[in-house]
Write a structure and sequence with these properties.
The protein has 897 residues and is of the alpha/beta class. Helices cover 43% and strands 18% of the residues. It has 30 helices and 27 strands. The strands form five sheets. The chain has a seven-stranded mixed beta sheet, with helices on both faces. Strands 3-4-2-1-5-6 form a six-stranded mixed beta sheet, sandwiched between helices. Strands 11-10-7-8-9-12 form a six-stranded mixed beta sheet, with helices on both faces. Helix 15 crosses helix 17, helix 26 runs antiparallel to helix 27 and helix 27 runs antiparallel to helix 28. The protein is elongated. The structure holds adenosine-5'-triphosphate (ATP). The site of adenosine-5'-triphosphate (ATP) has 15 residues, from helix 22. Belongs to the DNA mismatch repair MutS family. This protein is involved in the repair of mismatches in DNA. It is possible that it carries out the mismatch recognition step. This protein has a weak ATPase activity. It comes from Halonotius pteroides.
Length: 897
């Protein structure tokens, strides 16, 4: 936190001499030493001294001076009506912002208006709609180490709460890698750490907030939890879970104004990582589920599947994709529901239309329960409830959705109450009337009738008084200061009757009132004032009654969200031509059999996507070779995504698919894709590999994409080979390994269950066409040179490079990538025929140089120099990337001649 939190230093120096109002500011700042305090003064939130300078800088508002009897103070303010964007800027700048509001009516206050901090806004506990993206989640999380009685570390408790919806869950994980995985799924905006100890959580994109270590105290945390669940010891697994959960709830309470437990956190869910298909950070990233940082469309898997109509549904789909299922019955239930909807486009579109009218019930329920909902929020709730009968009706005849049908609670009592009580189009303000329907309460009806009759009497008064006085220009009006008046212009003043009393003198006219007018006025204003305040009380009663039903509203929100997510999966399936996968029981042989599989994202960006088959028995290892850009990564990811989508309950992009239930998906992409990362990236790659080798099981799917590439060729190949052998021999995990290490393909001869697959290309003259079609067998080894040629490296250099390869490896390949272009898309089998051809060595280096001189009139000396450099290269110790960079350098040398 930056230094301007709490009491600004200059204000601290002068705190004994400030005015009573600034004294309140000092007090608020002292109570919230970790937050930047914004202090309500009328229509503005103000900050003073150093805090003012910071607010001015971050929010780009003017720094002014406040002057009072005790001196001058720098001051910066943001308008309360329009505060959202400024608050967002402050939160983005990593501030906690404490809002010190006027908590009594300024007009009613006898002296200084009371002020108190009503909310602390932090990145992980934002509840203001204006600061929240629709359909997103905002979590504050914490991680606590679990130790055994003899102080040995025994895992970690993790808890997270979304203060806007009340979603709260805890889990226990074993390793730091598991912590990382869990946090990557939760993606908290804020992570709590005790202020007296270093954090046990890994670094991430969240803001770390140091909080009083007391929040993590086992007894204090447990006491707090008893406010939320009847028996914390039964609900939560262990002490670490309790401490983590107690701390996040304490923090959430603190940010919501410390009014005690948050009623809308009605359920603390426990989940176990083993009850879901586990995806660690690398898999989430590598499969581009939610984040596509690669080149191209930037679309993610989530984008392709997201046809949700409501924010609720969007959040649900996000949750489903992050935590696919492992329970076959649950998977089948979802698939049944999706299938029913895929087959009925009319129901689907009707449901979508209805769901589009659903407001964010989870957040609404949170606001109602926090007593922050206004009348419009209640109307939004009622509008959402009003679609429920239609939703029920639309799915009544669909057996696969009968459970959803039964769980759809129409909440008729709540809907009727709101409908009867709240005006159809209420104002935002709750204290100025117009919120409650007159018909809702007898006293209110009487008061409003009195007010109305009074106003009608006043409306008729003008005509009556004109008749009585004979003054045609007489008018009746009203203003805030003087109330009702009868206005007579100066020339007619002599006709004013005796019962007129002067109220106000204008330049050309006088304003009067009569005893009757005064009486009516008192009646009107008295009734209106009492009615406004009665309305406020009635509103609070209605809100309280609704708040008592928070659990039911949240349960309804869950069903609506799930229906929307199912509809979304069905629409995506219908529009993209997906099929229902055949998911096998966990006891099966783990076979992945996909006919005509496609990559759900890449297929949307390619004019003609080539479908590919996969047929792997559990524990098989497929070594995939092929030129750069031929489609290896796409293929591997599509296999993993098809499995993942199936376990989410989604249809899959294929013509047919029989799939196992996986426990984990690992993906590791070789280090050399990140040039800047260099050695440290290779280190990371290796430590990620370590995780796989520790954690993969015979139910896991492992994707290795050019692993080992970040080091020298010899070491890389050695690591790749040892890894493959270990996975195959010891772990029995089904594995797809894309590699440029041709040597790896020999494993297929040595081990049963290791297969070579390759991606073919055809060559016509100098043009190479990628077929993007997987075929059995290994591919040619000389891809780097081929790519160098395609990248524009001059022919003599390319030819010389081939020669060098030939002499260093004893292989005379010219690198031509000619494959069986006519190969069909039949399922690759375990055969290992290498279809790549090895044409004879061509010209010598000298010939190449001479040709170059003839053809391209290159500088002979430069070419000779390049040739010598080429000859001196120690290719065995170079990474492919270093080789490419060297080629590029050599080409530049020639270009400069
Ligand atoms: N089956 C396919 N049908 C059509 N186009 C495809 C197919 N697979 C891949 N592509 C296209 O080829 C491009 C390269 O694919 P991909 O990244 O999978 O190749 P790669 O062999 O892994 O390359 P590298 O070895 O350089 O990492 C993709 O971005 C896509 O545009």
């Amino acid at each position: 936190m930056t230094a301007v939190t709490g009491l600004p230093p200059t204000m601290a120096d002068r705190k004994d001499e400030v005015t009573p109002m600034l004294g309140q500011y000092v007090e608020c700042c002292e109570q919230h030493s970790d937050a930047l305090v914004l202090f309500q003064v009328g229509d503005f939130y103000e900050a003073f001294c150093e805090a003012a300078a910071e607010v001015a800088r971050v929010c780009e508002v003017t720094l002014t001076q406040r002057e009072d009897s005790t001196g001058e103070y720098p001051m910066a303010g943001i308008p309360i009506d329009n505060a959202a964007s400024y608050l967002e800027a402050l939160v983005e700048a990593d501030y906690r912002v404490a809002l010190a509001d006027q908590v009594e009516d300024a007009e009613a206050a006898s002296g200084l208006v009371d002020r108190a901090v009503t909310r602390v806004i932090t990145p992980g506990t934002v509840v203001e709609d204006a600061l929240l993206a629709a359909g997103s989640t905002t979590y504050v999380a914490s991680v606590v180490e679990r130790t055994t009685a003899d102080r040995v570390r025994d895992g970690y408790g993790i808890a997270a709460v979304d203060a806007s919806t009340g979603a709260c869950f805890v889990t226990t994980v074993l390793t730091r890698g598991d912590v990382r995985e869990e946090l990557d799924r939760i993606q908290p905006n804020e992570l709590l750490v005790a202020d007296d100890a270093p954090t046990v959580a890994p670094d991430g994109e969240w803001m770390e907030s140091a909080v009083d270590a007391e929040l993590f105290d086992p007894t204090i945390a447990r006491d707090r939890l008893t406010e939320y669940v009847a028996d914390p010891d039964r609900r939560l697994d262990n002490d670490a879970e309790q401490r983590a959960c107690g701390a996040v709830l304490a923090y959430a309470e603190y940010t919501q104004g410390d009014d005690g437990p948050l009623e809308y956190v009605s359920r603390i869910r426990r989940h176990d990582q083993r009850d879901q298909l586990r995806l660690d950070a690398a898999a989430l990233r590598g499969l581009e589920l939610f984040d596509n940082r690669g080149p191209g469309s930037g679309e993610t898997v989530f984008d392709v599947l997201d046809e949700t109509a409501s924010a609720l549904g969007r959040r649900c789909l996000d949750r489903w994709l992050r935590r696919p299922l492992v329970d076959r019955a649950a998977i089948e239930d979802r698939l049944d529901a999706v299938e029913a909807l895929v087959g009925d486009s009319v129901v689907r579109s009707d449901l979508s239309d209805l769901l589009a009218e659903a407001y964010d019930l989870e957040r609404l329920a949170g606001r109602v329960s926090r007593e922050r909902a206004n009348a419009r929020d209640l109307r939004a709730l009622q509008a959402t409830l009003s679609i429920v009968p239609d939703l029920k009706e639309r799915i009544a005849d669909i057996p696969a959705l009968s459970d959803y049908h039964d769980r759809l609670d129409e909440l008729r009592d709540v809907a009727t109450l709101i409908d009867e009580a709240i005006s159809p189009e209420p104002p935002m303000e709750l204290t100025e009337g117009g919120v409650i329907k007159q018909s809702f309460d007898d006293e209110l009806t009487d008061l409003r009738t009195t007010e109305q009759q009074g106003r009608e009497w006043v409306a008729d008064l003008e005509a009556a008084e004109r008749r009585r006085t004979g003054i045609d220009s007489l008018s009746v009006g009203h203003n805030q200061v003087h109330g009702y008046y009868i206005e007579v212009t100066n020339p007619n003043l002599d006709q004013v009757p005796d019962d007129y009393t002067r109220r106000q003198t204008l330049k050309n006219a006088e304003r009067f009132y009569t005893p009757e007018l005064k009486e009516r006025e008192d009646e009107i204003f008295g009734a209106a004032e009492r009615a406004d305040s009665l309305e406020y009380d009635l509103f609070c009663e209605v809100r309280e009654t609704v708040a008592a039903e928070t659990d039911r509203i949240q349960a309804l929100a869950t069903v609506i969200a799930e229906l929307d997510a199912l509809c979304s999966l069905a629409t995506a399936a219908a529009e993209n031509d997906y099929v229902r996968p055949n998911v096998q029981a966990a006891s099966d042989d783990g076979r992945i059999a996909i006919h005509g599989g496609r990559h759900p994202v890449v297929e949307t960006t390619q004019a003609e996507f080539v479908p590919n088959d996969t047929d792997l028995t559990g524990g098989d290892v497929a070594i995939i070779t092929g030129p750069n850009m031929s489609g290896k990564s796409t293929y591997m990811r599509q296999v993993a995504l098809i499995c993942l989508l199936a376990q989410t309950g989604s249809f899959v992009p294929a013509e047919a698919a029989t799939l196992p239930i996986l426990d984990r998906i690992f993906t590791r992409v070789g280090a050399s894709d990140d040039i800047a990362g260099g050695q440290s990236t290779f280190m990371r790659e290796m430590s990620e590999l370590t995780e796989i080798l520790h954690d993969a099981t015979d139910r896991s799917l492992v994707l290795l994409d050019e692993v080992g590439r970040g080091t020298s060729t010899a070491d890389g190949l050695a690591i790749a080979q040892a890894t493959t052998e270990f996975i195959h021999d010891e772990l029995d995990a089904t594995t797809l390994f894309a590699t440029h290490y041709h040597g790896l393909t020999n494993l297929a001869d040595e081990r049963e269950g290791v297969h070579n697959l390759h991606f073919a290309a055809t060559r016509d003259g100098d043009d190479v066409t990628f077929l993007h079609r997987v075929a059995p067998g290994a591919s040619s080894a000389s891809y780097g040179i081929e790519v160098a040629r395609m990248a524009g490296v001059p022919t003599p250099v390319v030819d010389r490079a081939r020669d060098v390869v030939a002499t260093t490896t004893g292989d005379a390949s010219d690198g031509t990538v000619v494959d069986d272009a006519t190969g069909s898309a039949a399922a690759p089998t375990a055969s290992d025929d290498d279809t790549a051809t090895d044409p004879p060595a061509s010209a010598t280096a000298d010939d190449a140089v001479c040709d170059a001189l003839d053809e391209q009139t290159l500088d002979a000396e430069a070419v000779a120099a390049v040739a010598t450099e080429l000859q001196d290269l120690d290719i065995a110790t170079m990474t492919p990337l270093e080789a490419l960079n060297t080629l590029d350098e050599l080409r530049s040398q020639l270009d400069e001649t």
